[in-house]
Structures are given as C-alpha cells and as structure tokens.
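Standup notes
- HV: blocked on the assembly model, inputs below
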Amino acid sequence: MKFIVENMKCGGCTAAVQAKLAALEGVASATVDLATKTVEISGAVDADTVIELLTEAGYPTELAD
Ligand SMILES: [Cu+2]
C-alpha cells in the first residue's frame, strides 16, 4: 500500500512517521520517502487505520494511486 503524506519536511518528520507506523500492529515494513512525501507499507493493516493514525499525528495522509 502506498500513501501520500503531507507535512513531512525533514528527517525528524520522517522519523516520527516511521515510529508511528512501526508501533502499529500488523505493519511488516514501512518505507518513508521524504523527497516524494510517500510511505510504502507492507503487512496486514487497514488503509483507513494508517490514514487516521498519521493524520491525527499531524501528517494528513491519503492513499496513493
Ligand atoms: Cu520535520
């Protein structure tokens, strides 16, 4: 699953997003790309759960493609 995550502006942001996702049950791996503001997630996790988690953390998120 690929997401577009707004508001990621520096390494601190990507680290925060990465940490949020790592703590989320069902996430096998999460790759955060600052340049393209995208996050690629694999694992058994619901897209809406990811969107809600990151949006509430201050990073408005939507599903890519
Ligand atoms: Cu930042």
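- HV (later): unblocked. The beta strands are 2-5, 27-33, 38-43, 61-63. Residues 9-10, 12-13 surround copper (II) ion (CB under 6 Å).
- Next: hand off to the docking folks.
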